[in-house]
User: What shape does this take?
Amino acid sequence: MAIPDKIGAANEINELLSGIVKHGGLRLKYRITVDPPMAEERDWERPEILVEFSGPDSPLLLGRGAELLRAIELLAIEMLRLPGNEHEKVCFDCMNHRSMRLEELRIAASVAAEKVRKSGAPYQFAPMSSRERRIVHLALRDHADLRTESQGDGLRRYVVVYPSDYKGTSPRPPGRTIP
Assistant: This one.
């Protein structure tokens, strides 16, 4: 389902961002595009609203795995009251970070697929966001000899790649083990 009033939503995002940039003292510029053209590197993401940041404070948005960029994006999504299954309709990016991360995830999925094929054992990714898990699932969707599953809860959800005929137990969740 599409965002009903994309222009209105873009204006709301603009108001939010102008306040964040101004009151945060950030040296950032941003461009909001409604129905952006689909670039090759965005073939698995089809945002209806794309926000692209640039400026001297761009590294602040991208630090710690783009934590601040993702937090501001989440604020915008919550402000628009988009249901969880429609979060991909709004996309924030900075210095082409998102397309580089997509390529990184595609390569990681390919490497995981080869490991699973060679070993016959499941491969478990580290916890990642729902969008990143989706990219891994989509990267491996056409591999008939493999299957993927998301496991874990909340911020600890991760993807496991299995041989399609795997019957063993699921691998242990990532993280610390308690003796």
